[in-house]
Amino acid sequence: MSGFVFYRNLILSAVGALLATASFIQVPGSAVAGDSYQVQRKNMIRLIESDVRATSAYLKRAALDERVLDVMNRVPRHEFVPADVVDQAYRNRPLPIGHGQTISQPYIVAIMTDLLELEPGQKVLEIGTGSGYQAAILAALDTRVWSIEIIEALGQRAQALLQRLGYENVETRIGDGYYGWNEQAPFDAIIVTAAASHIPPPLVKQLAVGGKMIIPVGSRFSTQELILITRINQEEVVTRQVLPVRFVPLTGSH
């Protein structure tokens, strides 16, 4: 269900700056010497870093965790896009993947991953497998990932691709992500890759104490906000609005 784009107009008016548009962790399926995409990946990282500096007031950080950038510099994004747009794989923009969905903008993938402050071995729930790219980024940080996709064709394709590329620490299933994956809860982190009209209570319940959830909240026709939720204890969570975004809506029976 992945599909979203950095809400540039609102950010640009707020920061008054034009955003760019156009050490390593070993990653399954990552680049090898002579990979023709290496230069494109490095340029993508520079664009992400530029966008992060331009939005640092929102993110409350001027730079991202080097582990996140290193992984994004290694995971082969071109494997996760359709053949007709593979030449655009490392542009800092979302790309269509079919069924009305997109592979998300690298900047958005980077900041959402970074804000979760993941540690090796942690359990992560992803709502909206989409192309599988975000799951691959999470898995490459040595976490254990459970990912749910409501569109069967996308979910099956992503599962096959992740397996082919060697991401053995990702488990996927087809279902309504609004209700989470209760059998595997609690999770140290939850990432939602589609906009919900409200924060889903089942996901909050499945968040471990000390865990973080990142989710866009708002409707298709109004401003959406990227929200960071942290569970303080069993009864209390705190929320922080990060920045305006534009995501496809979270769908399902809810």
Could you walk me through the main structural features you see in this protein, from its secondary elements to its overall organization?
This protein is of the alpha/beta class. The protein has one domain (4-247): Vaccinia Virus protein VP39 (Rossmann fold), CATH 3.40.50.150. It is 29% helix and 24% strand. The chain has 8 helices and 10 strands. It has helices spanning 8-15, 38-54, 56-59, 66-72, 106-115, 133-140, 152-165, 201-205, and strands spanning 4-6, 95-98, 101-103, 123-127, 144-149, 170-174, 187-192, 207-217, 224-231, 237-247. The chain has an 8-stranded mixed beta sheet. A two-stranded antiparallel ribbon has the order 2-3. Strand 2 and strand 3 form a beta hairpin. Helix 2 (38-54) packs across helix 5. The longest helix is centred in the first third of the chain and has 17 residues, at 38-54. It is globular and about 50 Å long.
Number of strands: 10
Indicate the CATH topology: Rossmann fold
Order of helices and strands: EHHHHEEHEHEHEEHEEE
* Shape-level CATH architecture: 3-Layer(aba) Sandwich
Which CATH C-level class is it? Alpha Beta
